[in-house]
Structure formats: structure tokens, C-alpha cells
Write a structure and sequence with these properties.
With about 500 residues, the chain is an alpha+beta fold. About 40% of the residues lie in helices and about 20% in strands. It has 3 domains: about 10-285, no CATH class; about 315-435, no CATH class; about 440-500, Arc Repressor Mutant, subunit A (Orthogonal Bundle). The strands form 4 sheets. Strands 1, 2, 6, 7, 10, 11, 12, 13 and 14 form a 9-stranded mixed beta sheet that branches. The radius of gyration is 30 Å and the shape is elongated. This is Aspartyl/glutamyl-tRNA(Asn/Gln) amidotransferase subunit B.
């Protein structure tokens, strides 16, 4: 395990920050945890509310099997303990957007126990030592509704569309010691959830958000009193929260005060946190087993099905890309960070291998460079002119095959790709009609070389006398004579042969 060197410099010396995160991830499901109401984002207020969600008298919750399944799959992806027996509890508190007066959650017997995530602390050097962040548990719970304060000058409205939506609360151990480590943890967790398909990871829409627990201490001393900043919805904000809270707490302690255990909110406009309420302990919520719900018991067949349904996960995929495909550690890490990027790469790799007529490991580096560098550069330069509906794997593979066969250069390939994105025309037709082909006609190239050497006899003598750098001059003159359409590899070979004869 790599220890962080991040420290807060105070008047009395260095302070260490201790961070734990409670990530709330909305479970991917067509319906809520205990009702059949829809979960689509952005619906009109109070249009996705069942009688159960609104806590009408006599309504009983019925667990959603898919939500349980997704939580179990997530736990397995995090190498966590899966508890075959778990139980739902009632967490009692009053709030205007919680119609029941309690939240159905899991405290004493969560569905998932201890696990861990291995994170990289240097994105530009994936081979640098990483760090293991412990997962304490994952429990399943229902979300509350939402108060809307901007709809009326004197009243707040309540939208219950989110009421009853299924959440996984993924609780880390207080293993993080810097904003960078916390950011790396959330990015890696989000990546895994999206690979598994248990959460879409859309932090802007609130389907993944973090409660950030921060405390400070002198290095090596006991943990200090922590604060919890609620509902932070981006990695950048999360890191800002940690930096602000750590410095604020150090200032409080060094001025003779004490840190109060409390819940705080983050103001992204000011980049600071503010007090919301004193932090309740578990006993304040009067937890007890929910009498309307039986314990959740998972049999071996269900667990085996969950395990068999897991995809290849980011770390395993990255290792395969490096070991089997021969990609660099950096390219493998970037390609596997987002599930969509990995899917695009693998689809194009299969198409390119077929179009070029070589096994996948032989073309993997070429495809990776296209996916990570060339294609994004062209798309960015075109802006709104780029129609991504034309950006099919087969069309991209056809362009890569032209480059591999030497019929088009790398520069010409970019031009072909630009025209493809604008028009959707066939790459081969574009290359032919737009003159974006390079010649491999050795006879024409040899004739051009012969003329250039004859017209530059003095430079030929200088080259043969040891001025090797003049080789670039001859290459440039040859390409100019061929109007840039000669195959550079063949030009190099024929020039060397001519100059050394």
C-alpha cells in the first residue's frame, strides 16, 4: 500500500487528513425498490409515484428482485463478502419529502460485507504503485423525495418521483489520505458500476453522489472528529470539499476550538462548506427491523447466476490488453477506464483485423492510436460538422486497412475520415475521387529519385562523405516531386538503395 504525502500545513506543523466516503448509487432498474413505479429521470413532478411511495395507509412494500440482484453483482465485482441472509430496517426521522416518516434501509445486516478497490494514484503512469481502499459494506435502501424551493415565493413544493428509488450505499473505510486518493476511488468505483451495469454513474443527474467524511489529525495520532458533507455530485467538487474542510478544521483546532461532529453542505459557487445540522448517531434514528418485510435469503443458484452474469471488469480487461494485445500500460488504462471506450475499441479491433487480414494483436496498437488520438482529434476539429451517425466501426476499419496496405498515408486517412464524418460516403470512393491515395509504383518513384540525385550531385557527394542528415532533404524533394502521394516507406527504401549504390 502506498502512503500519501499530502499534508495540510498549519501554524503548529503538519496535519494529516482522513477521508471516508459513503457513495449513494442509484440502482439500474425500471421500477423502484418496493413498488412498480417508474424511475426515469426528468419526468414531470409527482408523475412516478405509487401508493406505496406516497405512504398511503395499508400499502405494503414488495422487494424488487432486480435491485437485489444488482447489489449482489456489485458486491461480487468489488471482491466483497456476499451475505446470503440480510434484513431491512426502519430508519426513523421526519422530513417533508419522506412520506412514511421512516426510510427502509439496512444497518445491522447489510446484503454486502467487506471488499476493496485498487486505485491508481498516477493517471499518466498506470504502472506507478497503487493503493487498496477498503469497502466496509454495501446496503440497499430507498431514496427520499425532493423539496423544490424555487416554485413559489412563500411555499416549498414536494416532488416524490425519487421517493422509493433503489440506492446502494457503498461505504468505504477511512483509508484515503488526500483529495487525489478520494478522486481516484470515486472514478474507479464509477467505472466498475458502469461495467457491471448496476448504476449509470451519472453524477450530474444525481444517480451517483457522495457523502464526504473528513477529519484531521497529527500524523500517527488517533482519528479526529469528523464532519460529513452531503450529496456531493462531482469528483472535482468532492476534492474541493476535502481541501476546504481539512483547512477549516486545522484552523479551528489551532485556534483552540474543537471540531463539531455535524452534517454540512457544499456551496460550489463559493467553493466552501457550511453547517447544516448536528450529526445524528445511529441510536437517534431508532433503527429496528421492518415488520412488513421478511429477511432476504439468497440461495446458491441465485448467487451463481449473479456471478456468471458479470462482464470482464476494468482491471482484468487492462491486463488482457497489455498481455495479449501488447498495448502500453497507459493506452490499456485509458481504453478500459470507461466501458463505452472499451466497447468501441473491441468492436473496431475485430473489424480492423478482418479488413486488414491480420490477427488482432498485430493491429491492436494501430487501432488504439486511432481510437485515442486520431479520431478524437478529427471529431473535435470538425465540431458540429461531424455527424457521428457515419462513424461506424466498418468505415473506420476500411480507412485503417488503406493505411496498413500503404494505399493511403496517415495524413490522407485523416482527410478521408473528415469527409466520411461530414457526408457518410464510402471511404474507398472518397480516397479515389478526392485523390487521397499514395502511390507505391516503384518505377515512378525511382524515376523521380533519379532526377533529384542528378540535379543535386553536390549534395549527393556530401551525403556520401558523411553528412547523413541530408537524407531528410532527399526524402522531402522526392515527396514534393510525387506531390505528396508517394508511399514514404518505399521512398526511404529506394533512396537508401540509390544513395548507397
Amino acid at each position: 500500500m502506498t502512503e500519501s504525502t499530502y499534508r495540510v500545513q498549519g501554524a503548529t506543523g503538519e496535519w494529516e487528513v482522513v477521508i471516508g466516503l459513503e457513495v449513494h448509487a442509484q440502482i439500474t432498474s425500471q421500477s423502484k425498490l418496493f413498488s412498480g413505479a417508474a424511475t426515469e429521470f426528468g419526468a414531470e413532478p409527482n408523475t412516478q409515484v405509487s401508493l406505496v411511495d406516497a405512504a398511503m395507509p395499508g400499502m405494503l412494500p414488495v422487494p424488487n428482485k432486480e435491485c437485489i440482484r444488482q447489489a449482489v453483482r456489485t458486491g461480487m465485482a468489488l471482491n466483497a463478502q456476499i451475505n446470503p441472509w440480510s434484513r431491512f430496517d426502519r430508519k426513523n426521522y421526519f422530513y417533508a419529502d419522506l412520506p412514511q416518516g421512516y426510510q427502509i434501509s439496512q444497518l445491522f445486516h447489510p446484503i454486502v460485507g467487506e471488499g476493496e478497490i485498487e486505485v491508481s494514484l498516477d493517471e499518466k503512469n498506470p504502472d506507478a504503485p497503487g493503493k487498496s481502499i477498503g469497502i466496509e459494506r454495501i446496503h440497499v435502501e430507498q431514496d427520499a423525495g425532493k423539496l423544490m424551493h424555487d416554485q413559489h415565493p412563500t411555499m416549498s413544493y414536494v416532488d416524490l418521483n425519487r421517493s422509493g428509488v433503489a440506492l446502494m450505499e457503498i461505504v468505504s473505510r477511512p483509508d484515503m489520505r488526500s483529495p487525489q486518493e478520494a478522486g481516484a476511488y470515486v472514478r474507479k468505483l464509477r467505472s466498475i458500476l458502469r461495467y457491471v451495469g448496476s448504476c449509470d454513474g451519472n453524477m450530474e443527474q444525481g444517480s451517483m453522489r457522495a457523502d464526504v467524511n473528513v477529519s484531521v489529525r497529527k500524523p500517527g495520532e488517533e482519528f479526529g472528529t469528523r464532519t460529513e458533507t452531503k450529496n456531493v455530485n462531482s469528483v472535482r467538487f468532492l476534492q474541493q470539499v476535502i481541501e476546504f474542510e481539512a483547512n477549516r478544521q486545522v484552523d479551528v483546532l489551532e485556534s483552540g476550538g474543537r471540531v463539531v461532529q455535524e452534517t454540512r453542505l457544499f456551496d460550489p459557487d463559493k467553493g466552501e462548506t457550511r453547517s447544516m445540522r448536528s450529526k445524528e448517531d445511529a441510536h437517534d434514528y431508532r433503527y429496528f427491523p421492518d415488520p412488513d418485510l421478511l429477511p432476504v435469503e439468497l440461495d446458491d443458484e441465485f448467487l451463481e447466476e449473479c456471478k456468471a452474469s458479470l462482464p470482464e471488469l476494468p482491471d482484468a480487461k487492462r491486463a488482457r490488453y497489455e498481455g495479449e494485445l501488447g498495448l502500453t500500460a497507459y493506452n490499456a488504462a485509458v481504453l478500459t477506464a470507461e466501458v463505452e471506450t472499451a466497447q468501441r475499441f473491441e468492436e473496431l479491433l475485430a473489424e480492423a483485423a478482418t479488413a486488414i487480414g491480420k490477427p488482432e494483436p498485430k493491429v491492436a496498437t494501430q487501432v488504439a492510436n486511432w481510437i485515442l488520438s486520431v479520431a478524437p482529434g478529427v471529431i473535435k476539429s470538425l465540431g458540429e460538422e461531424a455527424n457521428l451517425e457515419h462513424n461506424s466501426a466498418s468505415a473506420n476499419a476500411a480507412i485503417l486497412a488503406m493505411v496498413d496496405k500503404g494505399s493511403s498515408s496517415g495524413g490522407q486517412a485523416k482527410e478521408i475520415y473528415e469527409i466520411l464524418l461530414k457526408t457518410g460516403r464510402d471511404p474507398a470512393e472518397i480516397a479515389e475521387t478526392e485523390g487521397l491515395q499514395q502511390t507505391s509504383d516503384t518505377g515512378a518513384i525511382e524515376a523521380a529519385i533519379s532526377d533529384i540525385l542528378a540535379n543535386n550531385a553536390d549534395k549527393v557527394e556530401q551525403y556520401k562523405g558523411g553528412k547523413d542528415k541530408l537524407f531528410g532533404f532527399f526524402v522531402g524533394q522526392t515527396m514534393k516531386a510525387m506531390q505528396g502521394k508517394a508511399n514514404p516507406q518505399i521512398v526511404n527504401e529506394l533512396l537508401k538503395k540509390a544513395l548507397n549504390s
